[in-house]
Amino acid sequence: xxxxSHNFIPRRPLQYPFTWGDMVVLTTVxxxxxxxxxxxxxxxxxxxxxxxxxxxxALPFYASLSIIRMxxxxxxxxxxxxxxxxIAAYNRSAERIFIPLLDILQSVPILSFLPVVxxxxxxxxxxxxxxxxxxxxxxFTSQVWNMTFAWYQxxxxxPMELHEASSIFRFNGWMRFKTLELPFAAISxxxxxxMSWAGGWFFLMAAEIFTAGQRDFRLPGLGSYLKEAANExxxxxxxxxxVTLVFVIVxxxxxxxxPLLTWADRFKLETVEGRVSHTSWFYDALHSSHIISWFxxxxxxxxxxxxxxxxxxxxxxxxxxxxKKVNLKWVMDLLEIAGVLGLLYGTYLTAQMLxxxxxxxxGIIGFGLIATLLRVxxxxxxxxxxxxxxxxxxxxxxxxxxxxxxLMQIVASVPATALFPIIAIIFISLPGGLNMAAVLxxxxxxxxxxxxxxxxxxxxxxxxxxxxxTMLQLDRWTRWRTLILPSIFPYIITGAITSAGGAWNASIIxxxxxxxxxxxxxxxxxxxxxxxxxxxxxxxxxxxTLTMILTVVIINxxxxxxxxxxxxxKYHFD
Length: 574
What we know:
Elements: H1 20-41, H2 59-90, H3 92-107, H4 110-122, H5 127-156, H6 160-168, H7 173-208, E1 211-212, E2 215-216, H8 222-232, H9 235-264, H10 281-288, H11 290-314, H12 329-355, H13 359-395, H14 398-413, H15 416-427, H16 433-459, H17 463-471, H18 476-510, E3 512-515, E4 518-521, H19 525-535, H20 538-570
Antiparallel strand pairs: 1-2, 3-4
């Protein structure tokens, strides 16, 4: 699988260390967090929340509201993914800013920033729109990063001969996107979309049940229904809520994800027909439907053809003439100067707030950082130990995929936040119990990113390579070393990045628990962030959040970028 030496498009990996671009991005994020905190201070002191009904008849309405929020966030996520990942993959200058920015954005502990977002939006928007917008932002941030990394990784690992073929046929950008890039990335995008929805349920529940002191930011939905039922100790309502959630997840799996996976099988990079394929009764029903066939032939296909013609007429598949450039240099210079001045002023104000943090608290932040880092590392190692063999087994066996994939989708989608109080009660009496409970919650919230990516990687292994390994009579270890691990390596890296980022995020609720009128916490950066939020200690919140972001960015630069370099140089199909 070594890349051919005659590169048609130079795809030099990111080999630079921590750069000025990283510093600019980090400083910009810090300033935005500071601005949010300043706005949060101006928010109303008392906000009343909605009344959540526990009547069974309210469940369909609540489920619809939750699904609508998820759909809106997903549409925004897929649009962001396609545009952002495309620019990062093909523009070297943009890549130097976009990938560090993506590293930082996926590492921002949004659960710690949730109160800041809600309070800042509540300062100048009506309460309900502010909370709805916040919930969509929160779900968006839980869905988008792994999808963007997967799209970026797919674009960077397209075989050279396919790029050469698209050049020979003189494809313009639209035709290359439609016939090469999107089909090549389809399997990875679909599996990561499934994972994004699973992660979205976790953060949706957090958004729908959020309160801060006397400010009630709850939203009507499945999350608030389950939380209200738990507070009331209404076991029947809890069961009804969980059953409704499971029903929604199963319906989405059967009517959306399974048909998409079956449809995406046609895009496997193979020279012989594969023996591992997905099946979907709903896809088969649609495929055999005369109504769908008529719609496709009479409406959908002609519409796509007309759109293709218009795009090709506007951007012909020939060498395009240079467009007349408008001299806007002075405008860009003014905007750049204004941006630099604004950034400097924001940096000054951010530094002032950070200077308000006592020296002793910085020491506590340092110890908390080490503790949380060890928990994140433990969760990632435990995830890798079971997701690699299980993911390969599922992705290589169509029967296992059809049987286990819906079950995995259900288990991954059940919000771990709903289970954590029970986990904490079980572990709290044990030595080091809360530490184990925190690692377990991180594991429950992040292991699925790895599993779904590894399944996608195993599914995408070409059948001809499997046949070659069989003909060579490779033993199990040699097959893993020379075929399976190299093939899934890019997918492992994509999953590991998002899993690690999710573990840092999960530390916010794993290390600081409020349950039954009591507060339980352990030493950690996540606990400090939660405690600062509860007490309204905004300087500590800013310092702890920026410390977490900076740490994750340094890890990404030192480790994950190097891993991406290896994946791009050695482990893609050419």
